Here is the input.
Amino acid sequence: MKINETEIEVVRGGVLESDAQAIVNAANTAMRGGGGVDGAIHDAAGKELMAELMEVAPHGAETSVPVLTRGHNLKQEYVIHVAGPVWSEARAGECEKLLHSCYRGALEMADEKELASLAFCSISTGIYGYPLALAAPVAVKTIVEYLWEHPQTGLRRVLFAMFGKEEYEVFCSALKKSQLS
Here is the structure.
Protein backbone atom coordinates (compact mmCIF):
# COMPACT_ATOMS: atom_id res chain seq x y z
CA MET A 1 0.00 0.00 0.00
CA LYS A 2 1.29 3.46 -0.81
CA ILE A 3 0.23 6.71 0.84
CA ASN A 4 1.67 9.85 -0.69
CA GLU A 5 5.33 8.85 -1.13
CA THR A 6 5.43 6.21 1.61
CA GLU A 7 5.15 2.48 1.06
CA ILE A 8 3.54 0.43 3.86
CA GLU A 9 4.10 -3.30 3.78
CA VAL A 10 3.91 -6.42 5.89
CA VAL A 11 6.92 -8.70 5.64
CA ARG A 12 7.60 -12.11 7.12
CA GLY A 13 10.54 -12.14 9.51
CA GLY A 14 11.73 -10.28 12.56
CA VAL A 15 12.64 -6.60 12.79
CA LEU A 16 16.31 -7.52 13.16
CA GLU A 17 16.21 -9.00 9.65
CA SER A 18 14.74 -5.85 8.13
CA ASP A 19 16.73 -3.42 6.04
CA ALA A 20 15.02 -0.44 7.72
CA GLN A 21 17.06 2.47 9.01
CA ALA A 22 15.40 2.07 12.43
CA ILE A 23 13.41 -0.59 14.22
CA VAL A 24 10.79 -0.35 16.93
CA ASN A 25 11.41 -2.47 20.00
CA ALA A 26 8.46 -3.73 22.05
CA ALA A 27 10.21 -2.90 25.31
CA ASN A 28 9.05 -2.81 28.92
CA THR A 29 8.74 0.31 31.08
CA ALA A 30 12.04 -0.44 32.86
CA MET A 31 13.88 -0.11 29.51
CA ARG A 32 16.40 -2.72 30.67
CA GLY A 33 15.82 -5.56 28.25
CA GLY A 34 13.50 -8.51 28.63
CA GLY A 35 12.20 -11.48 26.71
CA GLY A 36 10.89 -11.90 23.19
CA VAL A 37 11.87 -9.31 20.61
CA ASP A 38 13.21 -7.01 23.36
CA GLY A 39 15.70 -9.65 24.50
CA ALA A 40 16.69 -10.50 20.92
CA ILE A 41 17.38 -6.84 20.14
CA HIS A 42 19.45 -6.40 23.29
CA ASP A 43 21.43 -9.59 22.60
CA ALA A 44 22.17 -8.57 19.02
CA ALA A 45 22.96 -4.92 19.78
CA GLY A 46 25.45 -5.69 22.55
CA LYS A 47 25.95 -4.22 26.02
CA GLU A 48 26.48 -0.72 24.63
CA LEU A 49 22.72 -0.58 24.04
CA MET A 50 22.02 -1.15 27.73
CA ALA A 51 24.60 1.46 28.69
CA GLU A 52 22.94 4.02 26.41
CA LEU A 53 19.47 3.17 27.73
CA MET A 54 20.69 3.66 31.29
CA GLU A 55 21.90 7.10 30.25
CA VAL A 56 18.90 8.27 28.18
CA ALA A 57 16.20 6.60 30.30
CA PRO A 58 17.70 6.21 33.80
CA HIS A 59 14.26 5.63 35.34
CA GLY A 60 12.74 3.79 32.38
CA ALA A 61 9.79 5.25 30.46
CA GLU A 62 6.04 5.24 30.89
CA THR A 63 3.83 3.08 28.70
CA SER A 64 3.66 4.45 25.13
CA VAL A 65 6.54 6.94 25.60
CA PRO A 66 9.25 6.20 23.00
CA VAL A 67 12.97 6.26 23.77
CA LEU A 68 15.56 6.53 20.99
CA THR A 69 18.97 4.86 21.00
CA ARG A 70 21.59 4.06 18.42
CA GLY A 71 21.58 0.54 17.00
CA HIS A 72 25.12 -0.26 18.16
CA ASN A 73 25.94 -3.75 16.79
CA LEU A 74 22.71 -3.95 14.76
CA LYS A 75 22.61 -3.29 11.03
CA GLN A 76 19.88 -0.73 11.77
CA GLU A 77 21.07 2.74 12.69
CA TYR A 78 18.51 3.38 15.44
CA VAL A 79 16.15 1.61 17.83
CA ILE A 80 12.97 3.23 19.08
CA HIS A 81 12.03 1.49 22.34
CA VAL A 82 8.42 1.72 23.46
CA ALA A 83 6.52 -0.14 26.16
CA GLY A 84 3.06 -1.11 25.04
CA PRO A 85 0.06 -1.61 27.28
CA VAL A 86 -0.58 -4.81 29.21
CA TRP A 87 -3.93 -6.04 27.88
CA SER A 88 -6.97 -5.90 30.10
CA GLU A 89 -10.43 -6.50 28.71
CA ALA A 90 -11.83 -4.32 31.50
CA ARG A 91 -9.63 -1.46 30.25
CA ALA A 92 -9.89 -2.19 26.52
CA GLY A 93 -10.52 1.43 25.53
CA GLU A 94 -7.54 2.69 27.52
CA CYS A 95 -5.36 -0.10 26.10
CA GLU A 96 -6.34 0.88 22.56
CA LYS A 97 -5.45 4.54 23.18
CA LEU A 98 -2.08 3.55 24.65
CA LEU A 99 -1.32 1.19 21.75
CA HIS A 100 -2.22 3.94 19.29
CA SER A 101 0.18 6.26 21.15
CA CYS A 102 2.98 3.67 20.88
CA TYR A 103 2.80 3.55 17.10
CA ARG A 104 2.20 7.28 16.67
CA GLY A 105 5.04 8.22 19.02
CA ALA A 106 7.46 6.00 17.11
CA LEU A 107 6.42 7.63 13.82
CA GLU A 108 6.83 11.11 15.29
CA MET A 109 10.29 10.20 16.59
CA ALA A 110 11.25 8.78 13.18
CA ASP A 111 10.18 12.05 11.57
CA GLU A 112 12.13 14.09 14.13
CA LYS A 113 15.27 12.09 13.23
CA GLU A 114 14.42 12.45 9.51
CA LEU A 115 14.46 8.69 9.01
CA ALA A 116 13.58 7.19 5.64
CA SER A 117 12.46 3.74 6.82
CA LEU A 118 11.06 2.19 9.98
CA ALA A 119 10.21 -1.41 10.88
CA PHE A 120 7.66 -2.28 13.55
CA CYS A 121 7.17 -5.53 15.40
CA SER A 122 3.74 -6.30 16.86
CA ILE A 123 3.66 -4.24 20.05
CA SER A 124 1.99 -5.75 23.17
CA THR A 125 0.78 -8.96 21.51
CA GLY A 126 3.33 -11.24 23.16
CA ILE A 127 3.62 -11.59 26.91
CA TYR A 128 1.51 -8.44 27.39
CA GLY A 129 -1.45 -10.39 26.01
CA TYR A 130 -3.02 -7.84 23.66
CA PRO A 131 -5.19 -9.88 21.26
CA LEU A 132 -3.56 -9.87 17.84
CA ALA A 133 -6.91 -9.50 16.07
CA LEU A 134 -7.51 -6.25 17.99
CA ALA A 135 -3.94 -4.91 17.95
CA ALA A 136 -3.22 -5.22 14.21
CA PRO A 137 -6.06 -2.93 13.06
CA VAL A 138 -5.01 -0.30 15.63
CA ALA A 139 -1.41 -0.45 14.39
CA VAL A 140 -2.34 -0.24 10.71
CA LYS A 141 -4.95 2.50 11.21
CA THR A 142 -2.52 4.60 13.25
CA ILE A 143 0.16 4.44 10.58
CA VAL A 144 -2.24 5.08 7.69
CA GLU A 145 -3.77 8.08 9.49
CA TYR A 146 -0.34 9.47 10.40
CA LEU A 147 0.86 9.29 6.80
CA TRP A 148 -2.28 10.99 5.48
CA GLU A 149 -1.90 13.72 8.13
CA HIS A 150 1.82 14.20 7.37
CA PRO A 151 2.25 14.25 3.58
CA GLN A 152 5.67 15.90 3.98
CA THR A 153 7.10 13.04 6.08
CA GLY A 154 10.56 11.85 5.11
CA LEU A 155 9.52 8.25 5.74
CA ARG A 156 9.48 6.37 2.46
CA ARG A 157 8.96 2.87 3.86
CA VAL A 158 7.10 1.61 6.91
CA LEU A 159 7.30 -2.12 7.52
CA PHE A 160 5.44 -4.45 9.78
CA ALA A 161 8.05 -7.17 10.28
CA MET A 162 6.09 -10.15 11.57
CA PHE A 163 8.08 -13.08 12.88
CA GLY A 164 5.24 -15.57 13.29
CA LYS A 165 2.88 -16.91 10.63
CA GLU A 166 -0.27 -15.87 12.53
CA GLU A 167 1.07 -12.33 13.11
CA TYR A 168 1.95 -12.05 9.45
CA GLU A 169 -1.48 -13.19 8.29
CA VAL A 170 -3.40 -10.98 10.73
CA PHE A 171 -1.36 -7.88 9.82
CA CYS A 172 -1.72 -8.63 6.08
CA SER A 173 -5.48 -8.85 6.57
CA ALA A 174 -5.58 -5.60 8.56
CA LEU A 175 -3.59 -3.79 5.88
CA LYS A 176 -5.82 -5.16 3.13
CA LYS A 177 -8.96 -4.07 5.04
CA SER A 178 -7.52 -0.57 5.49
CA GLN A 179 -7.18 -0.26 1.71
CA LEU A 180 -10.87 -1.02 1.28
CA SER A 181 -12.08 1.60 3.73
Remarks:
- The radius of gyration is 15 Å.
- The chain has one domain: 2-180.
